[in-house]
Amino acid sequence: MTKSRGWVLAVGGSGIVEDWTLRESLVTGSGTVRWDRLGDPGAEPVVLLHGTPFSSYVWHEIAPALAAAGYRVHVWDMAGYGTSGMHAGQDVSLGAQGRIFAELLAHWGLQEPAVVAHDFGGCVALRAHLLHGARYRRLALVDPVALKPWGSPFFRLVGEHSRVFEQLPAALHEALVREYVSSASHLGLRPATLDALVGPWTGEEGQGAFYRQIAQADQRYTDEIQPLYPTIDLPVTVCWGTEDTWIPFVRGQELAALIPGARLVPVPQAGHLVPLDAPARLTGELLTFLMA
């Protein structure tokens, strides 16, 4: 498979972004971060955060739909993910990503955007808000990593032996990543979508980056902020795939109970990758939330 680390933001007649390249960049302490935006420059801003081991491509159906509905949609690849820079020794921890997100908001001049965050992106958005002073108009959390304990047996195994996994033959590594990414979907991913999500993790640079981000995953980054969830004072919705086998639906119930006024929205027939398993349903729920 040829490694693909870029797409062009070009919307086809279906309204879906057919090619996806993040055309802008910001140099941060953790390397160059790629970003882009869709929609009317004067429209109300919405920022989308992806999780791991994914990229902004998880939003390739939802981002243009939100832009078409009248929002200015910002997307970005976290440091060490997708089309953003990858290098040995890179800090791609949740601590670093939270600081980078606060820096990006300042770079964009966004003082109080609506934020939609999936998986690790949920922790990143929460840390930026609770620890780094980032302000949001509204916050939608989609199957976020937010509560202890987290990390599957596979995730822990790889984290403890990342140096060994980094030395896997390229074909075995790609097969592992394909199986791992596929397991996040309940309905199954289209081949082109799976290729787009796996591509950044192939090749020597991508293979090292894949195991680096797992090795740096640490529950302390959620432990630091979990006691602060009852202090969140803004509208929050928690959307959760009812068939999520990575983080079960009950965790969504627990999280919504900790955040004052948070609303829990079950998304049926969706696994952990809700933005790809149920893009139309999730878009509808997000629009309802954003317009409230």
From TrEMBL:
**Gene3D superfamilies membership:** alpha/beta hydrolase (3.40.50.1820)
Q: Which GO terms describe its molecular function?
A: monoacylglycerol lipase activity
Q: Which GO terms describe its cellular component?
A: membrane
Q: For this entry, list what GO says about its biological process.
A: acylglycerol catabolic process
Q: Which InterPro entries match?
A: AB_hydrolase_1, AB_hydrolase_fold, AB_hydrolase_sf, Epox_hydrolase-like
Q: Where is the AB hydrolase-1 domain?
A: 45-279
Per UniProt, which keywords does this protein have?
Answer: Hydrolase
Which Pfam family is one of those matched by this entry? Abhydrolase_1
Is Hydrolase given among the entry's keywords?
A: yes
Has UniProt tagged this entry with the keyword Hydrolase?
Answer: yes
**Name of the protein:** Alpha/beta hydrolase
